[in-house]
Design goal:
Elements (H helix, E strand, L loop, with lengths): L9 E7 L3 H12 L6 E7 L4 H13 L3 E6 L5 H9 L6 E4 L5 E2 L3 H14 L5 E9 L15 E4 L1 H7 L6 E6 L2 H4 L19 H11 L1 E11 L2 H8 L5 H17 L8 H17 L1 H12 L1
Parallel strand pairs: 1-2, 1-4, 2-3, 6-9
Antiparallel strand pairs: 4-8, 5-9, 6-8, 7-9
Helix pairs in contact: 1-2, 7-9, 9-10, 10-11
Length: 290
């Protein structure tokens, strides 16, 4: 029998990898949402019986739909690319598996998108809101204390230096319109596992503006972030950083002068990665010879 239920407005999109306990905390925050106009899409970057069993239990408890996609381990970038193919709603909310949404998160995003539509702002492709840490402090440097403003990622974070941890809601169509994952023919593209997410935000910013809401809608648990930053620079991480920095520097070439400090940081990281993994440099010379 066909399912005639109305499609929700949002897909809450989560990629997970061996974090069943943290994912349960996120599930609890979704259960507390004052607006349930969403489906939760979980993409597991590994076959994980514990996560699958937990999802089966949560489906019986939840008053919202849960879609679970399981992949063989291939890294976050591949999981993002594959996961987007399962999104059917017009809007998305990205949330990490070890973080939480505040209870009014979905409701605020829904109201904000309705305001964008009333204003006829077809140029707004994303709405970003702030994150607070475990102690309730805003994470990062924000541009204002309250209200909202319209800008774009490159201007806000690259030029103005307002680098905060945001929770992001986007029009689903932006993924295709900005050719988010189109790296065909790019150096190292066939070897990269985890592309730095700032690459994607840069690409979106060239096509879409962002509305920044200066209110916290996400609880950002720093323990998870610390685990990621502590990962050592092995050969694969060097490849990932070399590729990401190469792409960012190439795509921001006309705006290097707006943030010389970060430009030099990207260049230094690129050199470091090449020295740690000489095969990267060999592949670059081989590419130029062809």
């Amino acid at each position: 029998m066909a399912d005639n239920r109305a499609l929700p407005a949002f897909t809450v999109f989560t990629i997970t990898y061996r974090r069943t306990a943290e994912l349960g905390r996120l599930f609890a925050s979704l259960c507390r949402q004052t607006c349930k106009d969403f489906v939760w899409l979980i993409v597991s970057d590994e076959t994980n019986d514990a996560t699958r069993q937990a999802v089966d239990q949560w489906r019986e408890q939840a008053d919202f739909d849960i879609c679970y996609v399981e992949l063989t381990h291939g890294g976050k970038t591949r999981a993002m690319r594959e996961g987007f193919r399962h999104v059917r709603t017009p809007l998305m909310i990205d949330i990490d598996d070890d973080d939480e949404l505040v209870p009014h998160c979905v409701a605020v995003f829904k109201e904000a998108w309705q305001a964008v539509e009333r204003q006829g702002r077809a140029d707004i492709g994303m709405i970003n809101a702030l994150s607070v840490d475990d102690e309730g402090r805003v994470v990062g440097r924000m541009a204002a204390q309250s209200g909202c403003e319209d800008s774009d990622y490159i201007t806000m974070e690259w030029t103005r230096g307002c680098a905060a941890e945001y929770i992001i809601s986007r029009r689903t169509a932006t993924v295709a319109d900005a050719a988010l994952f189109d790296d065909r023919g790019t150096w190292l593209a066939d070897r990269v596992v985890n592309v730095r997410e700032s690459v994607y935000w840069n690409r979106l910013a060239r096509r879409w503006n962002t509305r920044y809401l200066y209110q916290p809608l996400r609880i950002y648990h720093t323990a998870g972030a610390s685990r990621l930053s502590a990962q050592r620079f092995d050969r694969q991480k060097c490849v990932d950083y070399a590729f990401s920095n190469y792409v960012m520097l190439r795509e921001l070439r006309g705006r290097w002068h707006e943030n010389c400090r970060t430009t030099l940081k990207y260049m230094a990281e690129w050199v470091y990665c090449v020295l740690r993994a000489p095969s990267i440099l060999v592949s670059l010379f081989a590419r130029r010879e062809h």
